[in-house]
Structure formats: structure tokens, C-alpha cells
Prior knowledge:
- There is one protein chain.
- The chain is α+β, with helices and mostly antiparallel strands.
- The protein folds into 2 domains: 4-176, Thermophilic metalloprotease-like (3-Layer(aba) Sandwich), CATH 3.40.1830.10; 179-365, no CATH class.
- Helices cover 32% and strands 27% of the residues.
- It has 13 helices and 19 strands.
- Strands 13-12-9-6-5-17-18-19 form an 8-stranded antiparallel beta sheet, with helices on one face. Strands 7-8-14-15-16 form a 5-stranded antiparallel beta sheet, with helices on one face.
- A hairpin with a 2-residue loop joins β10 (247-249) and β11.
- α1 (4-17) crosses α2 (35-47), α1 packs across α10 (172-178) and α8 (144-150) packs across α9 (154-164).
- The radius of gyration is 20 Å and the shape is globular.
Amino acid sequence: MRDQRAEALARILVRYSTKVGEGDVCVVQGTTAAEPLVLAVYEEVLRAGGLPILQMSPEDAMASFFALASDAQLDWIPPTTEWTTENADVRIVAMADENVRALSRVDPKRQARNQKARRHLMETSMRRSASGEHRWALTIFPTQAYASEAGMSLTEYEDFYYGACLVDDPDPVTAWERQSSEVNRLSEWITGSREVHVTGPGTDIKLGVEGRSWIPCAGTHNMPDGEFFTGPVEDSVEGEVSFSFPASYGGREVSGVRFAFEGGRVVDASAEQGEEFLIETLDTDEGARRLGELGIGTNYGISTGTKEILLDEKIGGTVHMAIGMSYPESGGENSSAVHWDMVCDLRQGGSITVDGKELQRDGRFLV
């Protein structure tokens, strides 16, 4: 029997996050491990009158691709991918890794080449999303791999994850809307500011945000959610930041990451683990060495790091910064084939100051 919590999550994704309506072309993507949730989403799209396109892939497909693909194949974009990126009204993705280390031995140069080839897809998707042409939502389906990374049993992880998604609410479709008041308030408070100063262990960094928009997030794109973010002024970032949690990108993990910025650009970078991959990613293109996003987490229901950025970047008392592409709706102008979020935990001796006024200390908001 399918877990009723997956059914509730599907209703949230279709009815609230993406608001699928009559005639909407909706791409539903996932690996085979996500089949229970993918099927629930597919059925809910049909009930909503949408036109679903299923795109499912075997768990090891990407590992096989990077192991076997020629340069020409790394550069090739399937026509179906082009079409859905340019034409679909909605895209719902359910990640369900069964082996989070499947790509750990891939040559980072091959991954960087493929990212460059797909850069225009990211740009098109972000542009269409910012204009309102395209709605999208990203979630995960609990697996043993995610549970292991989080240091939990699968049952514990399922309870933790579905709880974070608010699926146990008596009316899950409206739960996130009812929970949005705090993130909206904080986003409104910070709007119109000029500079954000973040300090913490190994971190002392200033980011210019004048003229940029702050976007409150309450379940319309990520599930679970809980943050507000902007795109820093591209040449404004100065200082150093040390990231607290391991960060994964393209199936590769790095940890102990430290960046030093001058004039908005990463001029020095190091990692305790995965440094070669980190540097290769920073060298993907010019925009990969600049920040495309500054986000502030507001979800205190997620209290511990899980090694999954979809969850970790939402933790109340953390900030996250993404190298690479900016979201156009934030006013950010950085362009890159990369968008890689990393999390800085401020709950033990950190602070966020905005135009000289303290917004947060030791992970708690003061305004």
C-alpha cells in the first residue's frame, strides 16, 4: 500500500506549489526509486486536468553516462529536454538517490563540460520561471541513502522528512500558505537594505544588496521550504566565509569549504575534502566564481544537518550562499552554468547585521 504521506505530498506539489490547472503541460521527473511519489503526482496532475509527461530514469543512468559518453555525447542535449524546458508549463522533480556516491569517481572535467553544454537550459528555465511562464517544484522521496546520510533509520527519516513538508496537517494543501507569515515579514523587513554583514566561526563577509529584491519562499518551489533570498550585487562581496556542512553538487561531495572574496570574485578557495572538484567547478566559467544567491533559513522544524541541501539550506539559524547563476526575479545578473548552494551555520556564535542593525544573533531573529 502506498504511504498516505506521499499522497498528501503529491497534493501539495500539484495543488499548492505549482497550481496545475486544466490543459497545463506538466513534466513529472524522478528515478525509479521515487516511483510511489512520481505515480501519486502523475495521478494528481490528471485529477487537476493537466497534461502529464513522465520522465523516469534508472538509478545508475547518470553514472553510466559519465563513464561511457564521448565528448560529442557530453555536449549533446536531447531534443525532448530542449522542448520541455522551452514549452512545459510545469515541472515537478522527485529526487530519490539510492547511492549518493554514485558519481564520486567521475572526472570533474567531464561534469564541467556537460554543465557548460546545458547552461542555456538553466538560463531558459530561470527566465521563464521569473516571468511566470513556468512553475516548478523540487522535492525528494525518502530512501535508505538519504536516511543513512542523515544518521537515521529509514522510518525515522520518513517521519522527519514528511513532518518537515507539513503533510500531517489536517489540510496539507493550505498548510504552507498558513505558515508563510513569518518569512513574508522578514522578507519585507530586509527589503530596501544596502548591505548584509555575516560573521561567525571562520566567517566575516559583506555583501551588497542595494536595488535587489528579496524573495520569500514558502513551498512554491522547494519542498520542504523556509527561507528568503536575493542576488548579491555581483562585484560587492568582500571577505571570507567558511561553510559548516558538507555540500554536494553533481553527485560529488565536498566538505570544509572556505572562500575568500575580493571585488565580488572568489580569489582563494580550499576544501578539506573534494578540493579538486571544487576548483574545477569554480573554473567552469567566469560567473562560477561570483555569488548568485544569498539566502537566510527560517525553518526551525529542520534542526540538524542531513547532507541534503534541499533541507539544510532551510535550517533556521543558517545562511546559504550559491556560487554561479542568479535567479532573475531577485534582480541578480550573474550568469553561469553553475548554481551551487553551501550552508553556513550561525547558531553557535554567528550574527547577521543589515545596514548596521542586527537581524540575527546565534541563529535567532531579533527584529
